[in-house]
Amino acid sequence: MLRPLTKTPREYNPLLLAYLGDAVYEIFIRHHLVARGIARPQDLQKEASKFVSALAQAKVYKAIENDLTEEERDILRRGRNAKSGSVPKNAKVTDYRQSTGLEALMGYLYLKKDEQRLHELMNSAIEIVEKGYKKND
Asked: For this UniProt entry, what is the primary localization, expressed as one broad class (predicted)?
């Protein structure tokens, strides 16, 4: 059994929310890919990288930010503005920060136990990446 939280989800550091959100995002993507019938590990990894890269997550961030509640936008902003101290060598700083914001939001929704909204936003994220992001690119 999981231990109960010692704070409300909003009280956690945005980088901690992003840490959890990264795992949540990844499990949704892995589930999606397995459900699509992809079975070979190398194919799963190749396909997953299309969804979980900083660039792909930044595109999702831009596509959904205007459809979020004020509370969700605040978490997104806090995650985006958090100083992590490092940026992957294959990502622009702005993309990396926006992807951190998106992951913070997913971590927040997970801790808040808002499964319906988490599923809604993850379905949107998957659709955005699969269709290819065109608007505000």
From this structure: cytoplasm
